[in-house]
Every structure is written in C-alpha cells, then in structure tokens.
Amino acid sequence: MQQRVDFHSRIEQALGNPQLKASLRSAMDGLMANRKACFPDADALEALRLRGAQIRANALSKLPQLLLQLEQRCTQNGIRVHWAESVDEANGIVLGIMREHQAELLIKGKSMVSEEMDLNRFLEAQGIECLESDLGEYILQLAGEPPSHIVAPAIHKTRQDIARLFKEKFPDIPYSDDVDTLTRNARGILRKKFYAASAGLSGVNFAVAESGTLCLVENEGNGRMCTTVPPVHIAVTGIEKVVEKLAHVPPLLKLLTRSATGQHITTYFNMISGPRRTGEKDGPKEVHLVLLDNGRSRIYEDNELVNTLRCIRCGACMNHCPIYTRIGGHAYGTTIPGPIGSILEPQKAGLDNLGELPVASTLCGACAEVCPVRIPIPTLLNRLRYERIRSDHDGATHGQGSGRTRKEAAIWKAWSWLHRSPVRYRLALTLATRLRKILPLGLGPWTRVRKPPRIAAKNLHRRAREEGFNDR
C-alpha cells in the first residue's frame, strides 16, 4: 500500500510541475522526430525490426547454453567471470575486486545495472568513492537524484538548472548556462579522475557468446576512458544481454542508436575482448564481468513474459508513451521507468510491491509500434494486470492476487449476478433511470478529474420500443 500511495503522490507532483512537463515535451518531440527521420522507409524498418526480434528471441531460446559459452570464451580471453544471483551478491563481488586492489575510487561509465544494484550508495558506505563520468549521470550525482530516462538520464533538467547546480557545487567556476561551456567544465573536472582511479566500471550493451566480446555503445568517450585508463575494468550486466554471434550485433546496433537518439551510428562503439596484452599500449591489466540475475531467471521460465527480456534499452517506448511524457521517470520510483519498466520491474520486485505500474498505461499501443525488437508490451501489461487481481494464473509472477480487495470482489460478483438474468438486468436499468437524480455522482478517483456521467431518463431498450423497433 505504501508503494501505491507514493506512486500516486509522485504522479500528482509531476503533473503539477509545469517546467517538468515543458522539458519532457520538448525533449520527447525532438527524439521522436529524430527517430522518424532515421527510418524513412517503413518496409525496411519493419524488416529490420523483425530481424532484431528474431536475434533476441534466438538468444533467449538458448540463454543457458549461450551464457556458459560466454563464460568459456571470456575466460579463454583472460576475462574473469562472476555470477550473481542477487544485487547484494553483485555488490559484494564488486567490493571484493575493489578491496583486492586496495582501490578507493571507482570511475563509472553509464550503467543501468549499476543503478539497479544501487552500487554507488553501497560502495560509499564502505568508504569507496564512486564517480559518474557520463555527463547526465554526473549531473544527477551532484543533484542527488536517480536517472529519469535510461538513455538521457538528466532529460528533465534545463541548462539553467544545471548551471545553478554547477555554481553551487563549484563556486570557483564562473556561472554559465552555455551548453558547450558546461560540458567543458565537467570534462575538466572528470579528466583528472580517470587517471587517479584504480578501477573503472561500465555496463554492457551486448555480450557476444561466440567470441567472448563485450560491446559498449556510447557518445561521450567516457566509457572508453573508464574501460582503458584504470588498471582494472569491471563490467556489470544482466544475464539477458547475451547474443549468440558477432554477426548479430550490427542489426541490433542499427536499431539501438536510431531508436534511442535518432543517430545513424553512435559516436563510440567499444568491443572489449580481454585485458591488455603484451605489446599493447593501453587497456586495463584486468577485466571482470559480473553477470546479474536478480529475478531474470524467473521471468525466463514463463513462455510469454520471457519476451520482456528482449529489451535492448533504447528508450523508444518511453519517448512515445503518453504517460511517461507527462510524468517523467522519477514518478515511477523504479530503476527502469516507462512502459518497459512497467512490465519488467513488477516481475522482479513482485506485483505486491509494484502492481500499480502495469495499470499506469492507456494501452494505446505506441510502445509496441516503436519497439525495435517488437516486444508486445500492451499484451504483457494486460497479463500483469490480470495476475495482480487474480491468483489462478499458471505464471510465476510474485505477488499474484495482491491487488484484489473484498470490495472489488463483491462488486464484480454482484455485476455477474445481475447480468446472468435478463429480467434482473432490465429491472436494474429501469431503477437506474427512475432514481438517476438521487444516485451518487462521485465515482472515486475517476471523477476527480472528469465530469461524472449522468444516467439518461430513458434507457436504450425503451427508446427503441418508442421508435418502433423490436428489442428482443
């Protein structure tokens, strides 16, 4: 219940923030326009989406075997592979690596899995400094906020917000709200940290089982710095990010960059296949790969919900969602917000904790129309809505039936009793029209923002009879 109250209060706060709505609307309009411009041929786009869906479905169908192959190939390449069933175990693995090297500073590239682990807070409690090097993530770290979007984490902030934040945190730097100047200032602050850090951390966009290659997509170059300058590189990823072959990466990369930011190709594409070898001039001395489960195996076991794991984290569903574009990511209160978060997060945390998220959708289908790997998000939202109310489904989603109340059960039981008998049904309609002036106008939250419907003086059957139609 606490999650529900918090979720509703965060929604109200977001809807009451005109600056947030303006920032989101401007950003989303731009992202949608850029994506559309990158896919001018509808037939070619659908063929590419079908190919992307097939690649991800193929990888998931062989997930256990591919993960073992990935471990074998990575180990042969000199990458140390670690398995983590939970975020606590994953955090412990990272902490162990840091302590092994007596490292006191971890410089991080952008990683949603590290956000899922709440790694920064965990390591800082152990006396280890974590510094975000992605500009958006760095801004939010200074502000003490979580990401609002999985691709553009600070999308909800204006440049004036950022300028004031920099002036507050770095009073010696002259105030400026020029984007290039702000970026240059941040680069100057971060550059020294890359050389001082004993370890760098990154996420993984695609892990190739065939070659033991970790693929990392980025635009700023900070990911390349994190993975090459510090002597130790730690990569963290969910187990679903594996793909079978290196040849499967180009179609997914084409879909990812164009769907995410409207770029034909990302600025940097890193392929990491091991630590620095003899004769090489750069690169880390050690590379570690942490494979996190955290409920993904449970999702994998369901023949329908497994489609959730196809996601390549492009954020297109958020950019086109009429709910997300009005309330932003923070209102969801989860690591992954928006449509994909509304199906992924409740499966991991349980419908008893996050069962409100699948309900926060219009089911308009925009998310499914733009998903580059064709995840049937509306279908999965409906599935989770059903499971939240009913506990008789064969699925294994934790918290089934937690959203059902005695009051709601009684209402539906009465509705069923009424509609099973034509006599009872017509009598109820007649009573409703006769008593329409004294029936309550308030219908709970629905009428807080809408005019309540008024029952007509004549029901449809009576009007049909008066017009000479037989209503039998």
TrEMBL record:
Keywords: 4Fe-4S, Electron transport, Iron, Iron-sulfur, Metal-binding, Repeat, Transport
Pfam families: Fer4_8, LUD_dom, LutB_C
Gene3D superfamilies noted in UniProt: Alpha-helical ferredoxin, NagB/RpiA/CoA transferase-like
Matches recorded under SUPFAM superfamilies: 4Fe-4S ferredoxins, NagB/RpiA/CoA transferase-like
Residue span, 4Fe-4S ferredoxin-type domain: 302-322
Any one of the GO BP annotations: lactate metabolic process
A GO molecular-function descriptor: metal ion binding
InterPro entries: 4Fe4S_Fe-S-bd, 4Fe4S_Fe_S_CS, FTHF_cligase-like_sf, Helical_ferredxn, LUD_dom, LutB/LldF, LutB_C, NagB/RpiA_transferase-like
Lineage top rank: taxon: Bacteria
Protein name per its UniProtKB record: Iron-sulfur cluster-binding protein
Record organism: Candidatus Thiodiazotropha taylori
